[in-house]
Design brief:
Elements: H1 2-32, H2 41-54, H3 58-92, H4 99-122, H5 128-168
Length: 178
């Protein structure tokens, strides 16, 4: 079980790196293209699907596409911050928390749901594969966070129990010094 605890930080870092690269590339590509990513079939299908669901006109679709691209860049940025925290913690020997990763994964979940719902409503099954892969990786990251959290709780219990044992030991008597 100890090898799992050693591999868990590397797994979460690899998943964070994957999403940082994928979402960062998608967001940057969409923002740098002249039509805000409408050249890409999957992104344009997502945007048009959102437009159909909410009855949004073509003028607002460009704004939505730009917003989704910026949202992906923010998610990628947060995951990069997590990776920097993890590397800094590794170098200094300190244990970093998972708060940044959890926020980043919530944004990844949001982008995945935003991407998958229009395809489900239109009946397209083929583009859902990449989103299913994302869902699997998010689940794997969540499981590694849970495993690491349980290990920290168990270590805290052992520490508090050992402190209880130490506190019940009799204190040595002080001898007055003349």
């Amino acid at each position: 079980m100890k090898w799992v605890l050693r591999a868990a930080p590397a797994g979460t870092a690899a998943i964070a790196l994957y999403f940082a690269l994928v979402l960062g590339f998608e967001g940057l590509r969409a923002l740098t293209l002249p039509l805000v990513g409408f050249e890409d079939w999957t992104l344009s299908s997502e945007i048009f699907g959102i437009g159909r669901v909410f009855g949004i006109g073509s003028e607002s679709l460009l704004r939505i596409a730009a917003f989704l691209a910026a949202f992906k860049l923010v998610a990628a940025g947060i995951l990069i911050v997590y990776l920097a925290e993890r590397i800094g913690g590794f170098m200094s020997g300190a244990v970093s928390g998972h708060e940044t990763l959890e926020i980043g994964l919530l944004l990844v979940i949001a982008t995945t749901l935003i991407g998958i719902v229009p395809f489900l409503m239109q009946g397209f099954i083929e583009p859902i594969r990449i989103h299913a892969t994302h869902a699997f990786l998010i689940t794997a990251a969540a499981l590694t966070i849970i495993v690491e959290g349980r290990e920290k709780i168990a270590a805290a219990r052992v520490t508090s129990e050992s402190m209880d044992v130490v506190s019940t030991l009799p204190m040595p008597q002080q001898v007055p010094v003349d």
